[in-house]
Design goal:
globular; single chain; 15 helices; disordered C terminus
């Protein structure tokens, strides 16, 4: 069971993010994108502070030594990725965004070769092919005609940038896991990322056309994205990536749109369709294939990723 827990963490992260895809799409009706993202990370920072501040003080000189990496992690993973996804929804459809997001593992695998010198196994290549096929099958509703009808616009380009941000973030998490403590690093990046979002949020606040709605539903949405999606999912992902490798972990991101398709009927009036079930099964097969690894390699990765709180 111990050898499987990193994979369970990656699955857990994508279960929560799958729900976040649906909840976040609803949240845009209550808050403008930058403010929505800022509120998310402020909530996460406040929840983490009682538990993480001591670790931050202990490692503050280490963080200063790697300040440029900390800034890059804050910019790509905290301030950048989700904000761009929220913002892109003003110009593109959720289907287009999800299809583009499904190429994240490919970007991670490519960056892993050049930045981490990781070798991509044949099982991972096959897994990528299966997973992407399953995602495309689901999002195209089992029809190639729907894929052929896709057009790229400003929103699609924003999603591509977001995907690049997340791929780079995952690579950096893996590369610096041996020297930067996982939890404290995440804590400090939530603070810095929030600061980065403040100027953009202030612009939205001063815009009279921006919509801000605070009620029980919107507060519930903020708690979901601020606690589950921003803390539990991120820490699960940041713990699992160094243990299994960035390229292999990237395959699991193909589970995100599948879980989103499962959760959509719970939060909306959508109905789970046959092509979502078939596509989900294909993705799961791809994930299982790509997860095949030697026990000794996993143990080595675990030892290398050891870090203090």
């Amino acid at each position: 069971m111990k050898d499987k827990y990193p994979y369970l963490l990656l699955v857990l992260a994508n279960i929560i993010w799958g729900g976040n895809f649906v909840v976040g799409n609803i949240g845009k009706e209550f808050f403008p994108p930058f403010t929505f993202s800022l509120l998310r990370w402020v909530i996460a920072f406040l929840i983490l502070t009682p538990f993480m501040f001591k670790g931050f003080m202990k490692n503050r000189y280490l963080f200063w030594k790697y300040k440029w990496i900390i800034l890059l992690l804050s910019f790509t993973g905290v301030a950048g990725y989700n904000t761009l996804i929220y913002y892109s929804m003003h110009w593109t459809t959720s289907i287009n965004a999800a299809v583009i997001n499904s190429i994240t593992p490919i970007f991670i695998a490519i960056l892993s070769i050049f930045i981490l010198s990781e070798k991509i196994s044949s099982a991972q290549i096959i897994g990528i092919c299966f997973s992407v096929t399953g995602v495309l099958f689901t999002l195209s509703r089992g029809s190639l005609d729907n894929l052929a009808a896709f057009t790229f616009n400003k929103g699609d380009l924003l999603v591509i940038i977001a995907v690049l941000f997340w791929a780079l973030y995952s690579i950096l998490v893996k590369k610096y896991a041996p020297v930067l403590p996982t939890y404290s690093t995440f804590y400090v990046t939530t603070f810095i990322g929030s600061i980065m979002l403040v100027p953009f949020s202030l612009t939205e606040i001063m815009d009279s056309s921006s919509v801000f709605i605070f009620n029980f539903e919107s507060i519930g949405i903020l708690l979901y994205v601020g606690f589950l999606a921003a803390i539990v999912a991120f820490l699960s992902w940041n713990t699992g990536v160094p243990l299994v490798g960035a390229a292999k972990a990237g395959i699991y991101l193909n589970l995100l749109p599948i879980f989103a398709a499962i959760f959509a009927p719970i939060f909306t009036d959508e109905v789970l369709m046959w092509y979502q079930i078939v596509g989900g099964m294909i993705v799961i097969v791809g994930v299982l294939i790509s997860s095949q690894t030697k026990k000794s390699l996993l143990i080595v990765n675990r030892k290398k990723s050891g870090s203090s709180y």
